[in-house]
Amino acid sequence: MTDAAPPAAPGLRRCPSCRATMELRSFAGRGLGPVEIDLCFDCQAIWFDAMESAQLTPGAVLELFDLIRKAQERAPRPLSQTCACPTCRHALGLVHDIERTNHITYYRCPEGHGRLTTFAQFLMEKNFVRSLSPAEVMRLRAVVTHVRCTSCGAPIDLAHDAVCGYCRAPIAILDADAVQGTVAQLTREEQARRPAVTQRAAVVQFLALPEESQAPTIVRDVLQLLFNIA
């Protein structure tokens, strides 16, 4: 385990990297309720409890994208070489993964409590940002010598590397076409789910009616099963 830090305020967590108190934000979820995630704007990182990222609705992903876009006016604080789980304090392990065609990295709790993802890696995960092709890396080398890793903030010497020497994340760019395509796709998905959300809300309201106004038990059971209502 890493050294303990003073406890954060009730209901809040400390950043696994800088140990500052994270900001709790609520977003629409695909399940029964909202998804509450923790953000560190200094490190530009997100703590996701297990499966929270996958539970975000398309509209919530767009909302978080806009929040990240506004926050990236300033450079992030580089992540600590040792990040600790805010729940169990065990050191987080670096994980290399693939989402669509993007190679992404994040830092995962060995006990399964969640993962730390930088803003840039979240954008890659959701396909707003893409990895550079070898040809694009060669063209970039012709005009610059060093870039900052989009994952951990460490410098990358383009003369020798096409990936971060610390976290091994590939060089990535915010591609205007990728952003436009992803925003359009998420917007369509969010619009498509709206009728289902409205329908579910009506069913919840119906099931809350007084007993004398309720439908037969079997009808209620079927509605609860179909709409995942406890």
Could you please describe the fold and organization of this structure?
The protein has a six-stranded antiparallel sheet. It has a two-stranded antiparallel ribbon with strand order 7-10. The protein has a two-stranded antiparallel ribbon with strand order 8-9. The chain has helices spanning 52-55, 58-71, 119-125, 134-141, 176-207, 217-226, and strands at residues 23-27, 35-40, 45-49, 93-99, 102-108, 114-118, 129-131, 146-148, 155-157, 172-174. Helix 2 (58-71) packs across helix 5 (176-207). It is globular, with a radius of gyration of 21 Å. The chain folds into two domains: 23-174, no CATH class; 183-226. The protein contains six helices and ten strands. The mean pLDDT is 79. With 230 residues, the protein is of the alpha+beta class. The protein is 33% helix and 20% strand.
